[in-house]
Amino acid sequence: MLIEVLKSKLHCVTVTEANLNYMGSITIDEDLMDAAEMVAGQKVQVVDNNNGERFETYIIKGERGSGCVCLNGAAARKVQVGDTCIIIAYAMVDFEEAKTFRPKVVFPRNNKI
């Protein structure tokens, strides 16, 4: 049996941009993606600590070293620039593996590693 578990997360990043005129997704600095073992196109959950919004979207690779965390399209309506968010990725793992699996949790400072 497979179950879904926390694979990795970026804990308390700051939204740097909200771009309503885009097809949708979240753009994340490639350094942040690497640190959290996330990849472009991956489904993630975004939790806004400022307003309680929780939603799913997919990742677009942002410029390395930029500190960019940009919500695009409809998701841009759910955040404000300056909000603190948690970006969460999940994985399907075997039930027995889940008992010992350890997620990758990253605590960026000012959106930098």
Automatic annotation (TrEMBL):
Belongs to the PanD family. Keywords: Autocatalytic cleavage, Cytoplasm, Decarboxylase, Lyase, Pantothenate biosynthesis, Pyruvate, Schiff base, Zymogen. Gene3D superfamilies: 2.40.40.20. It is found in: Cytoplasm. Pathway: Cofactor biosynthesis; (R)-pantothenate biosynthesis; beta-alanine from L-aspartate: step 1/1. Substrate binds at residues 57, 73-75. Binds 1 pyruvoyl group covalently per subunit. The modification Pyruvic acid (Ser) is found at residue 25. Its cofactor is pyruvate. The gene is panD. One of its GO terms (molecular function) is aspartate 1-decarboxylase activity. Heterooctamer of four alpha and four beta subunits. It comes from Xylanibacter muris. InterPro entries: Asp_de-COase-like_dom_sf, Asp_decarbox. The keyword Cytoplasm applies. The active site is at 25 (schiff-base intermediate with substrate), 58 (proton donor). It holds the Pfam family Asp_decarbox. This is Aspartate 1-decarboxylase. Is synthesized initially as an inactive proenzyme, which is activated by self-cleavage at a specific serine bond to produce a beta-subunit with a hydroxyl group at its C-terminus and an alpha-subunit with a pyruvoyl group at its N-terminus. It catalyses: L-aspartate + H(+) = beta-alanine + CO2. HAMAP family: PanD. Catalyzes the pyruvoyl-dependent decarboxylation of aspartate to produce beta-alanine. Its EC number is 4.1.1.11.
